[in-house]
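Input/output pair, single chain:
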Amino acid sequence: MDFASLFRHETDTVNFAAGETIVRHGEVLDVMYVLIEGEAEIKVGEQPLCEIGPGALVGELALIDRTPGNADVVAKSACRLVSINEHRFRFLIQQTPNFALEVMRVIAERLRAMNRRVAG
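Output:
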């Protein structure tokens, strides 16, 4: 599922300038974000984990389990994101059941990548 395409016509967006922190380690979010435009970097401390671009999800775990985030997400360029709260998340799952499966795939992919880093 192309999350960027799914939300491309969204007008209610959040914008961050290059260098701004989108999500802070330890922050408890009540929303997740879909990156529509721009690039960002996910870091733990000063250690970069990966770069993300349009279509990437940010804060999906925090929305699901309401625990503090374990990484910082910093805009590398001007970024435009769509904010999805729990009510909207539930609606998306009801209206587009594959949405939940795709979110779970993103979570699984990130977990596997982290496991490879730890094992490597």
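Residues 97-119 form the longest helix (23 residues). The chain has four helices and eight strands.
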